[in-house]
Amino acid sequence: MNLQQIVAQKHQSPGGEMLLVGNTDILSAMVRIPIVVIGLVVVALSIPIQQSLGSSRTLDFTIYSDGSTHVFYELETNPLEPEFSTKLFGTTLENLTIIDNNGFLLSYETVGDSVLIETLGASHIFIDYDTQELVSKTGKIWKFSVDPSSEYSLLMPNDSVIVEMNNFPISMEVENEQSRLVFTPGQTNISYYISTLASAQTTESISEDGGTDNSSILWILAGVISSIVIAAAIIVIKRKSGTPKSSVTIQKDEEPKLQSLDPESIFKAKQDLREDDKEIINFISANGGQVFESELRKKFLQPRTTMWRALKRLERHGIIEIVKKDFQNVIKLRSTLEDDS
Predict the structure, then answer these.
(1) CATH for the stretch 56-195
(2) Confidence of residue 250 (pLDDT cuts 50, 70, 90)
(3) Contact 330, 295 (CB under 8 A)
């Protein structure tokens, strides 16, 4: 007796008639199983995808010597959602800029330490801002504290020396004489001091007590003179070789203007300027007092949003003015300093 006869015998009625069990019934029962399995697999695969939308791909902190911190996010968002909300580090923010993956500025609304962003179908957004809330100072010791929920990097200030750290980094490298640390998610507290402060105080104490011998004074004077000579040579070289052609075009096209401010007078009046802002002022002054914004980005190798924040900061200080010309921004040093807005 073969398998078909056994199956037929099992499904005979008491009267001897065969009860037909169609092949379609068996096939439909078998087909339902893989459909259910495939559905479960699709649901399982969709869970990590949904969790990844809105997750942080890049989180960078840059600490400046004045105690301020620049925060940069790169986030993945759901392009099907019109809005996206994320947590910020601090409530007092400066120079907050949010753009999408096409470089367009996005509208937003801050509520406490969170921001609600109109993503307009963007798949990635980039958030930049400065805050004074992540670094505190006690005496000569600065302390940086942060508690992110994702992996992040931290760029320490120039000449900083770490004296205490509660969380060990997973990697460390030196970048332009600055330490870049990478940490896993979680609370991190770092105490550090700026070594140049100690050297400056040592120089002051030597000059006050007058206990140094003549040879030490001669060495100091020689160092100061050599520094002045080197700085003067660098300025001459930059003025000869670093003037872009486009800045000359601006001067030819426009009417004669008032003499722009001298960088030294600006630095004397605005003593809280950052070092990178001073470099921008020196470059503009060396190029006739006005340059295109694109020239600044090429000179300092900075992305558009970073340079734009710096220029808006100088504009608020009343040092520069930003003028539109042929779909470009012309950056001009003012002839007189204006009060901070």
Answers:
(1) 2.60.40.1730
(2) very low
(3) no
